[in-house]
Amino acid sequence: MDKILLKAAALSVCAAVTFSLTACGKKSSSAEIEIPILETSAPVYNTVKAEIGSISEKYYGEASYGISHEMTASFTRAGQIKEINVELNKQVKKGDVLCVLRSEEIEQQIEEADVWLEQSESTYNKLLAKGNVPAAELEYARIDYELQKLNHARLERELAQYTVKAPCDGTITWINDRNRELNVNTKVYPDWLCTISDNSENALSCKMIQKIEHVGYGTKVIITSTLGEYEGYVTGEREYGEGATAQYIYEIRCDDDDVEGANKFKVCFDVYDKDDVVLVPAKAIKAIGERRFVNLLVGGVKVEQDVETGIEDGEMVEITNGLVGGEEIIINGE
């Protein structure tokens, strides 16, 4: 009896499962699947027009007369040290010999040049004294004499490069011996040897935390104090200190004596001014490696345009090639 009941129950379950599967199959075949479609809107760009205008490259700082004037003594050629007279805090006079390089080869050339110069001078003077000498012969002797003088002067100038002299009176404050000791026979290359501080002449100087590109000798400087505005120019630059604490000092000369009446000054390094150039906002310039480009909006489509840039003032950038002005520049998005 139990077996009969179990068999009946199993058949009931199978029938229920079969009915369920059949019902599902019919529903799947007759139902339609709906896929939602998302509507997208066109991207919105913020744009500005590439404009024609003026731009200046300027840097600002403070200056004072509290820094001693310094000059650098340098090697202008490579060689081996023959004699050196450089010590920290040593007092020197302008023209004092600080270092001499070995110069046997050039000295030998000068000795030979002395002989040739003496012979050419003697020949020319004899022809002049003799008289009735063909003009071509006399001219040849004169030219030879002039050439020998030029060659001798060239060798003398070259010999002078083997000697480093103090450029001013003062005290030796820095020696370029960080990577090697400077002794007799040390091999050196064109580089600075030492700096000399001249306390007798305090220069108007501006300290900056980093070297300013494009600022150098002759750069125009606008000097402002409580007494008025003056115009000066850069006469020198040097690094003060080492590593992360290093500062760059720019010495400034002003020919107006009235400028010395104040203690501190605001200075503006007026590096460059240009008019009638194409300008775009600095944030519009994109860069990939060395490539620089802007995104243009042309007929509602974003188009990349390669550009070449010039000076910039922190907000605007000069475009030297790639735009002519009037283009619509995208300033948001990538």
Question: How would you sum up this structure, described in words?
Answer:
The protein has 334 residues and is of the alpha+beta class. Among the domains are: 47-56 and 275-330, Beta Barrel (conserved putative lor/sdh protein from methanococcus maripaludis s2 fold); 73-165, no CATH class. It is 25% helix and 43% strand. It contains 3 helices and 19 strands. The chain has a 6-stranded antiparallel β-barrel. A hairpin with a 2-residue loop joins β10 (220-225) and β11. The radius of gyration is 41 Å and the shape is extended. It starts with a helix and ends with a strand. The model is unreliable at 1-11 and 13-29 (pLDDT under 50).
Shape: extended
Portion in strands: 35-45%
- Calculate the mean pLDDT score and round it: 84
Q: Sketch the major β-sheet.
A: 6 strands, antiparallel, barrel
Contiguous low-pLDDT stretches (5 residues minimum) are 1-11, 13-29
Query: What is the end-to-end distance?
Result: 81 Å
Kindly state the number of beta strands.
19
The percent of residues in helical segments reads 10-25%
SSE topology string:
HEEEEEHHEEEEEEEEEEEEEE
| Oligomerization status of the protein chains | single chain
Task: Give the number of helices.
Answer: 3
Rg result: 41 Å
Strand order in space, largest sheet = 2-9-12-11-10-13
| SS-based class | alpha+beta
